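Okay, can you check this protein?
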Amino acid sequence: MSDGSDHQDLSVLLRAASEGDARAAEAIIPLVYDELRAMARAKLRRARPGATIEATALVHDAYVRLLGKDMQFANRRHFFFAAGRAMHDVLCERARRADQRAGAEQGAQESAAATEDPVKRSTILAMEEALPRLQAVDARAHDVVMLRFFAGLTFEQIAETLDVTPRTIERDWRFARTWLYDALRSEHGLSGVATLVASDNDSEAG
């Protein structure tokens, strides 16, 4: 993780970028790259262990999306929350394109997401459909899923981001995990759900 001075520098740059400073927007990436790459690898480990090249591509695609939002971020926490969402959106769009190309001949330059197991793609898309309904049931539990499952943050980091205690985050995570497991199993019968939703222990992995 970055030290305190980097945190302060990022906050200053985010404010400047939100005001239209292009140089500030360009200067942000060196300060956040390592953390964004760690977030990407945490997500991709569930589908393709050790996929470092894919993680790099995911960081790039997600950052392009963030730039497209004109860098309107209130602070460092908001930025990393948005980054986790952007990574999720990138993976969902790649999964949809892979389904659309199903049965077509795959070229050597096809994206990594297009070569994932179809069960994994189906689970990603099913999760995308279920998340808005979880948000309607419990908005904070939804945010915990976005930050834990898609961004790979620890309970302590999520607690800091959402300004609650780690114990509260643990309860929210258990509720969200059970809700998603039940919803996806009953609606889609996906065998991969047990691995992707119920695999994360209640204790921290570090």
